[in-house]
Amino acid sequence: MDFERRSEPLLPRRQFILRVLWYGTFSFVLLGISLGIGTLGYHYLNELGWLDSFLNASMILAGMGPVDALKNDGAKWFASFYAVFSGVVFLSTVAVFLSPIAHRFLHKLHLGD
Fold first, then answer.
1. Which of 8, 12, 48, 67 gets the most CB atoms within 10 Å of its CB?
2. Taking the CA of residue 105 as centre, how many other CA atoms within 13 Å lie in the half-sphere pointing to its CB?
3. Which parts of the chain span the membrane according to its record (predicted)?
4. Does the domain at residues 20-109 carry the CATH identifier 1.10.287.70?
């Protein structure tokens, strides 16, 4: 989905809301997949229950840090890479989610040019 160019008129409100919903949906799907990867990794590599695995993955993805101690080297390797992955995914998701809003704001500023 392309954004309108500087010389084009501002997108109508209904289309803008649909764009925000589309980008929001994509963002939440990306977060859900990332959360699933973390949950599976903690469950199988650190031998945690599903709820504890989900909690640890959520805390890492949100930037808070792990809750449970890591039991083996495989879990430590996974947690290290998942933490870096989560940081990139979280920042990228925020950028994707806010991009239509930021674009509309900037486009409004340049309409008079």
1. 48
2. 5
3. 20-45, 77-98
4. yes
